[in-house]
Amino acid sequence: MSTTSLRLRTLPRYPARISGTNGVKTVRETGSADLVVKNDFSDMIRVPAVDNPDKIFLLTWNADTNSYSIMSFTDTFAAAIDVTGLMPKSVYDPANHNADAFARANHTGVQAISTVTGLQTALDSKDGKVVYAAKSANYTALLADNNAVHRFTAAATVALTAAATLGANWHYTVVANGADVTIDPNSTETINGLLTLIVPNGTSAQIICDGSAFFTVFKPTGWQLIERRSFSGVNAVTFLNLFGDIRLRGFVDSAGAGADLYWRSSTNNGSSYDTGASDYTFEALLASSTSITAARTTGSLASITTGGFSAGVFDMTITGFGRALPAAAITAVSGASAGGTLSGASLQFFSQWRNSSVARNAIQIGTTPTSNISGFITVEALA
Known about the structure:
The chain has four helices and 27 strands. The chain is mostly beta strands.
């Protein structure tokens, strides 16, 4: 490495000749006979790397004493940590990875969310996947319930956390599936301008916060398709996991003349069916040709047809089937006929009851006397 120097040479015609090299230059100012010695940074040699920080030095100047001194790279970084808080290499790169120390590809491991201050709260305030839960008691909706859908299966009150805490754009859906649900905002805050709001059984409501109050839009719950089933040569068909009000529509063909269709309900999802001697009551209007007759019966099943049939189309709606109410059914049948002879003009109308206030969740369709049946049935439910 070249050494910076100041060189003097005596000439006969002038007391001295001054020239600079390797970072030092002499300059004669315009109009002056004096020579000024300055640093010439453009003439300095650039060092590509510091191979030995203890033997590479920096020239420093102390403004208080107007003096120059040198500092090694080691001394410079040791002084800098005290002044600016820079992290020494022994801390940030103890394994001496050098340039690879901060390469993202070299980082491995898992950091718990709880170790990052405020991260979980920030994540909770963002929309993500819909979080579903079924509830059957009073509940307080929290910040973490943003974008949640809660289905209430019994009468309940949903208390809303203060709007300022939930913040603008927080939203939450309540499904009333068993009884009315009351929405109760915090203190004097309102929802749709009211202190409380009822979500009627069988509907849902999305609640939206604007940071100071709440508003909502009701969504009536429509019929939900449960199953379309075709069957052939079976004694009975059963449908499980039912809820709310149900509707059954279809076509049934009986292999045995004189058999009638019936339905029975279950409270244990089909493990057994209600067959008590007075579990069901039905009234029927029977129309054939120009005559109409009526009948009323209480028994261990609810008739869908009466008088024997060979084939028929039926449409039955049972209100309160999956609720803690007596189940009331209205059934219309076309094509039922006495003696097993199909007559498209034959009509039967039934009002049927299951005399119990226990919610049901399965239904059986069969014949009495037992006979093989074929056809198809569509089942829908209304929450």
